[in-house]
Predict the structure.
Amino acid sequence: MSDATPSPPSGSPPLILVAEDDHHHRFVLRRVFAAVGMEAELRFVSNGRELLGTLERCRSEPSDANPWPHLVLLDLHMPGMGGIETLEAMRADRTLRVLPVIVFSSSDHPHHIDQAYASGANAYLVKVGDFRELVRHLRGLSAFWLHAARLPRVPGGAHPRVPDNASP
Amino acid sequence: LNELSTALCEREPIHIPGAAQSHGVLLALQATDRGAQGDVRVVAASVPARAAGADGLQGFLDARSAALVSEALAAAGARQDDVLLGTLRDGDGRAWSGVLHADARGTSLLELEPDPPRDSAAWPLLAGLNRGLADIQRQDGITKACEATARAFSALTGFDRVMVYRFHPDWTGAVEAEIVLSSQGEGHEPADSYLGLMFPASDIPAQARALYVANGVRLIPDAAVAPLPLTRFDGDDAPIDLTRAVLRAVAPVHLRYLANMGVRASMSVAVTTPRGALWGLVACHHLRGPLQVGPDLRQAAEMLARALSWRISELDESRTRRQVARMREHAAPLLAVVSDPLAPGSQPALDAFCAECKADALALLPAAHGAFGPVRAGMAPGNADLAALAAWLDRSQPGDRLVTDRLFALLDTPLAARLGKAGDLAPAGLLALRLAGPQSGWLLLLRREWRHVVTWAGDPRKQPEPGRPAMAGSVLPLSPRASFAAWTEEIAGRSAAWSEADIATAVALRDAVAEILVRRSAEIERNNAELRRRNEETRFFADAAAHDLKEPLWQIQVLSGLVKEQIEDLPRDVPPAPEAVSDLLEMMGSVVGSSARMRATIDDLTQLAVAGRDPERTVRVRLRDIVEEALDDLGRGPRARAANEALISLDGMGEACVGCDPLQIRRVFQNLLSNAFKYRDPQRRLAIRISVDGPAEPRPGDRLRIFVADNGLGFDPRYSTRLFEPFRRFPAEAAAGTEGLGLGLAICQRIVLAHGGTIEASSGDGEGARFCFTLAEPTVP
């Protein structure tokens, strides 16, 4: 497959559920994703408890208003239920166990990184400050997780949408 | 008697009435220093002297009686208890009963009473016993007390040789004191002296020692006559137990020994400790002929032996007490060493303690992870050797102590070889005490080998001749075997034995050290818990601070990068499209906002860092003034309030004053009030009430309670303590719509604590938040 630039997926764009409490942050993420050219839809929740509640709704009342996400982007540092606690709760749940979770944190401390993987993160991405590097990272994230990787079935049983240019 | 006369009676000096009762005669005597022994001056009397001006005893007594008194006075010295003198006669030939005693200043009183004792056998016995008991009682050393006992026995019984024999812990023994009568009468040489000779343990075997405990006196009035067999008339063959019989027959072998020594008669009296253990014997030999000692004399002998035993135990106890007391003196600096092994001047204390226990070295060896390193004093072997010794003790000693004077006989070969290489420092004697519980380490006192020569009464290594059993329990034990020739031997591989006092001293030290260890380990446990808590707190704080600084920084970096790219992409030749400009402006606005938040976080951190410090200057201020200033700082001064934006009531404050650092307390109000504004309930008009509660007539130093209450969103009461933790963030439910509380309340808490007060928060259903903190009334005007 080509990983240089992701092709626009068919139908509605892939959904990324972002747990992020800071609205300034949400603004920055939106702008950066747009600048990267990622046609992913970003949906925000404030903390872990809200994330779990949203996923529960997506599972029990699947609808266009509650679509199942392709990816979860998780900040470690959130008020209330923090990132690690949320991860552990997800990994203890039969359905949520398989949902890919990318930790996206400003910390590059090895302790935090180890802790995230030990709690079941699929990848750990540091919020790097250098704009070009950040763009490279996010493009890579998109190319791999939204295009190259085959994702598990959604709770209803159907496979998530497969990018139309992916090899069968 | 009325009260007055009772009081007079109590004050009357009845012990110095200046007169004597008239039925007897009282003489006050002083030994003169004119040189001649027995020279006595009469300094006061209750009857006149026969010749006026004569102050000698002859003025009152006949010559024989005067001599008796002089003699008794010289022998008794400053004795305060009665010396019975028996029948004395005055110059007129009248018989009196005489008693002599001394007052505290050394004047002796001779008292003559009527009714002189009849000339009975009891009188000399009583007098001898009286003199002997007093003599034993006044001795200040064990050997001296033994000598006094031997003297009393000799005087009472007339045996040619009286010995006090003392058992050692291994049941060998030695003659401690001896009286040998010099004049044996015609045709008799004086008896040989056994003083200082050692006897092997086998000389007085266990069954013989047991007999002495059961029956304290063994008498053989004549070793030259044959015993009479016991004839039974009841046909029973069972032997009759003669343990307690005075007439118990003597083993033939022992009779032969006595004959070899030239001993015709002997008597041994046991000296037992108050706890019933055999300490020694008073052994008497008579060489000139048979000697019968009647039951009355035997009783007297037993009383003397008992007096010796009491005196010995008194002396032992007081010696132990003195040693332990001295140890406590030395122990104070020593324990300071344990508390702080680097304490200066510790070495003299350690050396003094070593000397007190007559040890050559001391080592405190705590377990590997102990509270202090090894402490050593004296000529101790190296640390590695000591550690090996401690490991061996841990392996081999189940009890809490090991006391030995021959360590090398116990050690396994490798350890013996290792310690043996220490040469002169090799310990032969070890007193080891476990410090506290198992594996807690050891207190070791070490003694070097003490090579010394002992003189045995005969060679103890010589076996008894075949067919001749070792001494049976029924015989007088204190007789050397066939050869009585002194035989010397050098004792090697042993240290001096540890005394009860040494052990008691070491135990006292061990107990003190153990107490410190227990206290210390509890302290360490507490400190560790506190340290873990602080580490956790610090880690959380650092994480949170890093996060709160990194996040806005990241936003600034990313947005700046984005802005830069977009500007680079703008066409150079035409003005940018208005949408592009507004987009750039929006991002730059966000950059400015993030910078401001970052700046605020840094300010908060700076505030927090200084908030814990002591208040810089404590002055008397009116609380209401501080609150007004804080409101001004927040842009909520009187003008803003007049605009009806919020209802702020200071009515409950009165004119209360506190002693505080005004800048810091102003910061407290700023933070509390800005929280109230931040977390206001959008549904209703904000109302804040600030009030003060305190004593009606406050005195300096009294506590005031200051309340800041609002009608805002409040918080979940579960978080009322965690609110004050720096950076603690709360779920939306706890503080709706907030960005977290940051550092404001943590700063408030630190400032109030630094002022010696406390702060707490409460919130109930729909009640808003209420903060209460305490400050003190000013102590300065």
